[in-house]
Amino acid sequence: MVESERLSFIRHNQKKLRVDKYSSLQGSLHVGTSKGLSKGKRAILTSTFVGSPCYMDQLYFDGMAICNHVGFPNLFITLTCNPNWTKIRRVLAPLNLKATDRPDIISRVFRLKYEHMLFDLTKNHLLGKVVAFMHTIEFQKRGLPHIQLLLFLHPDNQYPSSDEIDHIISAEIPSHEDDPELYTLVQNHMVHGPCGILQSHSPCMKEGKCSRFYPKIFLPNTLLDLNGYLVYRRRNDGRTILKNSVIVDNRYLVPYNAKLLRKYQAHINIE
């Protein structure tokens, strides 16, 4: 309804928005061979309308200006909404509703969780001092929102060595005896698939291969591959975890941060 009202305002206020100054429209008026019926009555969407080409261009230019000023981003974090969060279940469970029945509740709680996480990262410096950030919110086909966040860290907190990276990013199964809480969280949120020969019908399978390149390889230390991408430490320590009735090892784990996972209890991928 809000979007419809915005479109109606733009459509009926084209003169106030000075859309006659657009060069493409002026050019079309001077082409005598074009048929007028093929043009129709065009309404130009301004940069204030979310999702319009001008809006997307403006965000792109802003993002490139940030990169030009502070450099390349250092951390890429993806937070996916967990429909089993307590605040969501407290509303849905008594009414016997699913998460898809109340997208308004899902979106509100997810926004609150993200703002809290962003405060921890930018103000409390959970992963280091942040000098800039940018994000985008997307909705999956089943309706759950997820956010993709880029963090630009201060030069003193950019984790230049593999040992420092291992302090904030883990791709290994924690000890069930030493930390059963973290073990359960990893089991519920941070296991990919399973796919490949374990489950060939997994949604990530394309032409007989995993589109996310799982399972990964065992590796004793974190290192850079030939293309400059990090390959995280996945030791063959014998630890396993049960996911969808399939036993998997470290090769199927999505990289995570223990502090973020423990606090927000959702799928939080960090690269």
Automatic annotation (TrEMBL):
InterPro entries named in the record: Helitron_helicase-like
Pfam families: Helitron_like_N
Stated name of the protein: Helitron helicase-like domain-containing protein
Biological source species: Glycine max
Domain Helitron helicase-like: 2-151
